[in-house]
Amino acid sequence: MKSPLSRNMKLVVGLAFALVIVLSANALLTNDRTYAQAGRKSSDKQKKNPNASGDPDEASATEQGRPDRQKPKVDKTVPPATMSIDTNIVNVEAVVYNKKTGGILQGLKKENFEIYEDGIKQELENFSTPDAPVTMVLLLEYSKLVDFLGRPAGGYFEGGRIEILRPAYEFVSRFVQPKDFISVVAYDIRPTPLVDFTDDKTKLMSAINLLIRNNPAFSESNMFDALKFVLQGGKGDSVVLEESKDKPEKMDYAGLEEVNDRTAIMLVASGLDTFSKINFDQARKIVENAGVPIYVIGTGNLFMKLYDGSAAMDPGRGGILVNGIQIDRMTMLQAQNTLKTFAESTGGKYFPVTFAGEIPNVLQSVSALVRNQYSLGYTPTNTRQEGKRRKIQVKVNLGDQIDPKLVIVQHRQSYTEPKPGEKK
User: Fold this and answer.
1) In contact, 104 and 410? CB cutoff 8 Å
2) What is the Cα–Cα distance from 294 to 15, expressed in whole angstroms?
3) Interior CA angle at 267 toward 418 and 169, to 5°?
4) Is the distance from CB of 199 to CB of 178 less than 8 angstroms?
5) Over the stretch 243-254, which tens digit does the pLDDT of each residue have?
6) How large is the C-alpha radius of gyration of the chain?
7) 292 with 257: CB under 8 angstroms?
8) Beta bridge pairs of residue 121
9) How many CB atoms lie within 10 A of CB 131?
10) Residue 76 half-sphere exposure, CB side, CA atoms within 13 Å?
11) Kind and range of the H or E element at 394?
12) How far apart are the first and last CA of the chain?
C-alpha cells in the first residue's frame, strides 16, 4: 500500500508540470504579440481589424477552433520571416481615364497593364483593383502668411486661411465615406496632427472647426517639412490630439509610408515654403520615393487675383515683405510650379483654384481619382545602387475597345534608387 506522502509528492509534481505548461503557453502568446507589433506602428484601422495578418485560413481556424487549419509551429526565438518587409518592391498607384471625355476607365484587369522601368519591361507581381476604402491625410497650410496675403490694404478677405480650410471642410462633410481613414494635419512653422487616422467624421469635423475658430500662431509656412512628416512620420505635437491630456508633449505619428492600404494626400496650400529644414530637391526625393499620390488644391491664384495689377506684386518694386520673405508674382508662380511638380511626379493631380465656386467640382474630381486607383507592384530587374533616378512608365492595353492615344494613365513618374546600405 502506497503511503500518503507518496501520493502527495505525485500531486505536487503534477501541479508543477501543469504550471510549467501554462507559463510556456503564456510566453508563446507574449512573443506572438511582440512580433506582431514589431512590424510597424499601429493605427486605429489596424486595431479595428481582427484579422491583422490578412490570412483568411488563420482567421477561420481561430474562430472555429479547428487545429487542422492552424499554421505549423515556428521557432519563437527569432521573428518569423513573414514579418520582414521587402524594400525592393516598387509600388505604383495608377488611375486610367479617357483623354477625350475625362471619364475614368473601370473594371480593368492585371493583364491590361504593362509596367516599364527605364524602358525595360518589368514583371507585374502585385495587383489590386480599386475596391478598398481611402486612407488619406488632409494636409492644410495654416499660417499668418496666408492670412496676410488675404488682406490687401489691411482689409480682411477670404483668400486667407478660410479658403485653405473650406476645401477640407467640404471634403469631410460631403465626400468621406464609411471605413475611410482620414488624418488632419495643419502646418505653419511645424506640422501639427489635429486628429490621427480615424473613420469618425465627427472627430474630423471638430478638428477643422478648431482651426476655423482659432488663428495661426506663426508666419512661417514650412511645406517641405510637413510633407516629410506626413509621409515618413515622426514626433508630432499632441496638444490637440484625442486623449492628449494623458499623453507626453511629443508623440509618435506614423507616416503614410507605413500604411499598407490605398493611400493619398490632399494638400491645400499656396505652395510657399519659408524656412523648412529640407530643401526642394530633398522634398522631391521623399515624395517620389514614398509612392503616395499627392492631390493638390493650389490657392496661389486666389492671392494673385487679389493683387492683380497691384504694384505690390511687381518684383521690380520689392513685392510684399512678410517676415523677411519677399512675396511677388514670380515667387507665387514658382510656388505653383512646385505644387505641380509634387502632384504629377507622385501620380496625383494639381488643381489651381481661382474662385471659391470651383471647389466642389475639384473635390468631386479628387474623390473620384482616389477611389479609382489601381495598385501595382514590381521588383526591379536592375540591381544597381548608385542613387540615380529611375523612370517609371505604365501602359494599358484595351485592344480594340478604345484608341490607345486616348488612354491616359496617371501614376508616379520616377523614384531614386538607394545607395549601398541605404533604404529605398
Assistant:
1) no
2) 61
3) 150
4) yes
5) 444 555 677 788
6) 26
7) yes
8) 116
9) 7
10) 13
11) strand 389-396
12) 75
Q: Which three cell numbers stand for residue 317?
A: 518694386
Q: What whole-number distance in Å separates Cα of residue 140 and Cα of residue 161? A: 9
Residue labelled with grid coordinates 512590424: 39
Report the C-alpha gap between 167 and 142 in whole angstroms: 13
CA distances from 248 to 236, 239, 244, 245, 392 (A): 10, 9, 8, 8, 42
Whether the predicted pLDDT of 142 surpasses 80: yes
Q: Cα separation of 314 and 304, whole Å?
A: 11
Q: What is the mean pLDDT of residues 218-247?
A: 75
- Could you tell me which residues are beta bridge partners of residue 251? 236
CA angle 346, 347, 350 (to 5 degrees): 90
pLDDT band with cut points at 50, 70 and 90 for residue 352: very high
CB 188 within 8 A of CB 164: no
Please give the grid coordinates belonging to residue 348. 496625383
Closest CA to 184 of 265, 120, 246: 265
Q: Is the predicted pLDDT of residue 363 greater than 70, yes or no?
A: yes
Q: What is the pLDDT of residues 168-190, one digit of tens each?
A: 999 999 999 988 999 999 998 88
The whole-chain average pLDDT of the chain stands at 75
Most confident of 9-18, 36-45, 369-378: 369-378
CB of 390 closer than 8 Å to CB of 118 = yes
Q: Which three cell numbers mark 407?
A: 488612354
Q: Which long-range CB contacts under 8 A does 274-281 form with residues at least 24 apart?
A: 274/145, 274/219, 274/220, 274/221, 274/222, 274/323, 274/325, 275/189, 275/220, 275/222, 276/222, 276/223, 276/224, 276/225, 277/222, 277/224, 277/225, 278/224, 278/225, 278/228, 279/224, 280/224, 280/338
Q: How far apart (Å, rounded) are the C-alpha atoms in residues 121 and 240?
A: 48
Q: Which residues of 50-75 are buried (b: 16+ CB within 10 A; e: fewer)?
A: eeeeeeeeeeebeeeeeeeeeeeeee
